[in-house]
Amino acid sequence: MRAMVLAAGLGTRLRPITYEMPKPMVPVLNRPVMEHIVRLLARHGFTETIANLHWFPELIQDHFGDGSAFGVELTYSPEEQLLGTSGGVRKAAGFLGESFLVISGDALTDIDLTAMREFHESHDGIATLATKRVADTSQFGVAITGADGRIQGFQEKPDPAEALSDLANCGIYMFRSEIFDFFPAPGASKAAGPGDPEAFADWAMDVFPRLLEGDVPFYSHEIDDYWNDIGNLEELRSGNLDALSGAFEVEREGELVDGFRSGSPQGDEGKLSGPVLLGPGCEIGDDVRIDGPSVIGDGARIGDGARLREVIALPGAEVPAGAVLIGAIAGRRG
Hints:
By secondary structure, this protein is α/β, with parallel strands linked by helices. It contains seven helices and 26 strands.
């Protein structure tokens, strides 16, 4: 089964970070979030992979290359104009074959893709959607299912008091190639926006409603695994801290201080109270105190006397001398 990583979006809810990089390149534990996804694909045998690109495509291509360093064969599908959540998949149909996986390149998860594939192959439906129970449905699109897991409808970000389901759609799908028979005709997308109106298509607005209207079976695969769609700055911060605290397993980049240590790596008299991840080439000034969980990015500079607690310092960030940051994300000025 081949896979497609969706990596073309603008990531508007992560601005100002995404003014300078695509959302899939935003770091979690000092590695791009998309790298965690690609390594997950490799672990579960999805080694033939394609990614669609639009926003800062060169940053993604420069980092991943042909994918061999990450255990996959990676090719690219550039989109001069955005084609939507499913329009980009249709463009790559010739690569994807008879049965395929679609996964967001800007979400953080350790989903068991092998178990999802086994479920997908066990039923006769045209699609399988990964879902996860959430406490606050107002932040997610939710799937309404029958006792057998067959999807009967959707609600978009319903108030919890009005929600008919608490199963959030994780944006991780497995499809049979017949799914392309249910795409809108060129120019007929209900969701066509700033992209190419002839090729634009959206799963929620265009494709899934046609499956429901045609009584075509497709199913929910409920997961217990970690999943965070990194939809905003707070979720980016919580995703980093969850990973650092061991809520799920991902690879990290840098030195982990797990406990208490007197003396900063380069400075004097400072104190680190872990877990604190120190990225390669970061510079910690004199008399700096960092309380974890915190992540200091590659090449970040923390000025003398700064005090940080539960902070994510992005690669290249500069924290001024004497600054006090609590529960913050520190970036760099372009």
